Backbone:
């Protein structure tokens, strides 16, 4: 499948930006705090967003920004302090159980049943949806094929690699043929081959018309998969939109990363004045510019520096919006 | 907050969760059943014949019969407790099985109900195995012995519910040692399993009367020895009260732990 095809399908029935009734997931002014007194911490602080059917929507944010709590609230696993959620047309948390009939969840950590085989994991999970054994049994070969696990049907979970476990968790989330799939960091801890395989499967699901909401730390993943994304920090939604549009809107088009012994000296004496914006992180100077040619021309003659010229990407946007300090 | 204290939701949604636990158990049923039979067999023979040869009769029955008719309650209590503590904790906290259940269209109340009934099921399996051993030893060949089965299930439900309270409060497996050594073991000694409660000081006897294990022994022992409980409704009321109160409490503390 390709992305233009999907946008084509979207434009067939144009969706106004704030059409709550038809949004598959509509969240407005969501709030959640934990703790009491001085220890009270606001984790989600007035978040609103609407998911269109068939899109992939990313929630990005540093650790502790409130992404996982937002997902838990959307699934009705915890009670909000304020705000409204509608998931597949049902109010959450009031009708969360009924809503989850149409939902698949890929949690952050694998919670497959270690006592069961691959196929038994799918069978037992299907029963939780009230499905007949025969219906689930009929679906299992398709799910295993999708997850590229057909040969591992009778394997125990301990025999699977990390990538296989993730794929099985994804297949398990599809046992009820959901309309919308929640994924909390679907590729964290996977090697590059395994990540690419997961991405490929997610694209297949999007092509089938499924809606996906995912959280991730990987900017390449978000840029590659998401039609739209939201950057969340300190419980607030600080930017939302198509990845390319957001980059164009918030930051300069090009980046020159300058490093080497002389980089910091060059940065303070020349770079800061010449670039539209400059940031220093460790030994590296980041110069953000709309036109890189003048700077590149001067850099080629500077001794003791090396540099990399590239287009601005989502990581630049993310770091600009959320800062370069460590979050723990 | 209203939802935190709402009465437990009862529905048949517990069935697939119960079946999940049953499927795990079935894979290991052989060794598990062997343990269920071997453990009481060894204990009854060792204590019954060893101590019994010195004691001969207690309350007019041979010691092995006295012991067997009480020990079955203790074994059912232990089976329910182990399942609702260690096994439930590993499903809730270590394997995150509960997390997976809650991502499906199931509620936490369904999970708590399923775990309670599953632990009671394991307890009754253990109870039936011991009953088999007792019958094989020539004890309990009376028609009313069949009445102990529903009572054993109620005992299982009661201690499963009490165990699930501890499960929801536990930070690690170590916590359960306190429950066993500070609550269950002393209860065994005041509930007339090994010796009649008449030996105890008055205040301990009255305490024993309102203990769930004491009530259980008062009901089960006479039925297995061919008689009838002296005060069945009072003892049943004690068990049902513990079961209902503990299950409600288990539901609340589990909600408080997991639905934050």
Residues:
């Amino acid at each position: 499948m390709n992305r233009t095809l999907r946008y084509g399908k979207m434009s067939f029935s144009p969706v106004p930006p704030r059409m709550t009734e038809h949004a598959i997931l509509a969240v407005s002014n969501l709030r959640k705090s934990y703790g009491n007194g001085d220890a009270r911490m606001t984790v989600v602080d007035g978040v609103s967003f609407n998911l269109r059917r068939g899109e992939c929507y990313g929630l990005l944010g540093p650790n502790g920004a409130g992404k996982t709590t937002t997902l838990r609230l959307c699934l009705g696993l915890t009670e909000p302090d304020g705000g409204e959620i509608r998931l597949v047309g049902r109010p959450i948390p009031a009708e969360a159980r009924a809503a989850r009939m149409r939902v698949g969840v890929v949690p952050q950590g694998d919670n497959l049943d270690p006592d069961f085989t691959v196929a038994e994991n799918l069978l037992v999970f299907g029963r939780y949806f009230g499905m007949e054994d025969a219906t689930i049994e009929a679906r299992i070969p398709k799910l295993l094929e999708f997850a590229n696990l057909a040969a591992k049907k009778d394997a125990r979970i301990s025999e699977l690699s990390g990538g296989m476990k993730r794929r099985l968790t994804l297949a398990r989330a599809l046992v009820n043929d959901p309309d919308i799939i929640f994924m909390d960091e679907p590729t964290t801890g996977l090697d590059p081959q395994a990540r690419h395989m997961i991405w490929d499967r997610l694209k297949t699901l999007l092509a089938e018309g499924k809606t996906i909401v995912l959280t991730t730390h990987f900017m390449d993943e978000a840029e590659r998969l998401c039609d739209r994304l939201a950057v969340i920090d300190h419980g607030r939604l600080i930017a939302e939109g198509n990845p390319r549009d957001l980059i164009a809107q918030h930051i300069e088009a090009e980046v020159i990363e300058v490093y080497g012994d002389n980089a910091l000296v060059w940065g303070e004496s020349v770079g800061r004045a010449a670039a539209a914006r400059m940031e220093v992180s460790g030994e590296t100077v980041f110069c953000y510019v709309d036109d890189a040619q003048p700077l590149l021309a001067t850099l080629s003659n500077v001794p003791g520096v090396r540099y990399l010229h590239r287009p601005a990407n989502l990581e630049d946007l993310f770091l600009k919006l959320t800062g370069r300090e460590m979050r723990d | 907050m209203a939802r935190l204290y709402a009465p437990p939701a009862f529905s048949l949604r517990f069935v697939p969760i119960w079946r999940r636990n049953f499927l795990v158990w079935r894979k290991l049923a052989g060794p598990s059943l062997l343990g269920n039979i071997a453990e009481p067999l060894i204990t009854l023979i060792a204590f019954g014949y060893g101590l019994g040869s010195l004691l001969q009769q207690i309350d007019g029955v041979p010691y092995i019969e006295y012991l067997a008719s009480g020990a079955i309650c203790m074994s059912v209590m232990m089976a329910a407790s182990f399942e609702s503590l260690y096994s439930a904790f590993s499903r809730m906290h270590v394997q995150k099985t509960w997390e997976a259940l809650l991502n499906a269209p199931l509620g936490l109340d369904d999970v708590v109900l399923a775990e309670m009934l599953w632990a009671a099921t394991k307890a009754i399996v253990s109870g039936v195995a011991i009953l088999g051993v007792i019958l094989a030893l020539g004890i309990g060949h009376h028609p009313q012995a069949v009445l102990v089965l529903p009572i054993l299930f109620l005992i299982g439900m009661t201690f499963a519910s009490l165990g699930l309270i501890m499960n929801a409060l536990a930070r690690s497996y170590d916590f359960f040692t306190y429950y066993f050594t500070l609550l269950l073991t002393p209860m065994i000694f005041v509930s007339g399993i090994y010796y009649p409660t008449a030996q105890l000081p008055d205040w301990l006897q009255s305490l024993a009367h309102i203990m769930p294990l004491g009530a259980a022994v008062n009901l089960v022992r006479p039925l297995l020895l061919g008689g009838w409980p002296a005060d069945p409704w009072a003892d049943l009321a004690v068990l049902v009260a513990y079961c209902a109160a503990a299950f409600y409490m288990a539901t609340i503390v589990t909600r408080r732990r997991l639905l934050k």
